[in-house]
Amino acid sequence: VRAYLQQHEELVSVLESQIREKMSESKSASAEYSFDGVKWAGDLRYDQLPEGAFFENYVISELVKSYSNGGIDVRSRFCYYRDNNSNEIDLLIIQNGKIYPIEIKKSANPTIEAIKNFSVVSSLNMEAGNGTVFCMAKNVFPLDRMNSLVPIDEI
User: Fold this and answer.
1) 89 SS3 class
2) β-strands 32-35, 38-41: how paired?
């Protein structure tokens, strides 16, 4: 993950520049701006960037690569979920008539709290498949009968 972050220092520099420009245009010094769902405020340094968001993007890019290498076009299969009640799921994979909820956590031992929003999948008029929390765990570990922690090495 660190190597991935270091490879993207130029992107970080561009984002920081855009943030500073937006902040200087703003009438409020405490305004927040969102780039790819990540809220930024004030004058951030590289060491203050939200590593979890970069980790999430890394995992999703690896999933996209894995599916693409298998000849599967993910554009009609991958989406995310967010509703008006602040329920969010990092990734939904639609496959074989089912929706598979995915959360991505940088932690090596996420808790059951990581899947708290998976229940909204039942309201999406498709059968729910097993859920996955991709994380830094060393082994696959069940959270409950339908959901598991899965190491990113398994992608």
Assistant:
1) strand
2) antiparallel
**Mean pLDDT of the residues in the chain:** 79
What is the reported pLDDT for 52?
80
CA distances from 28 to 32, 35, 41, 97, 151 (A): 9, 18, 11, 47, 42
Model pTM? 0.68
**Which residue intervals of 81-142 are DSSP H helices?**
none
DSSP of 1-30: -HHHHHHTHHHHHHHHHHHHHHHHH-S-TT
At 135, which helix (H) or strand (E)?
A: strand 131-135
pLDDT number for residue 9: 59
- 36: its two tokens: 């790819």
Cα 11 to Cα 17: distance, rounded to the nearest angstrom: 10
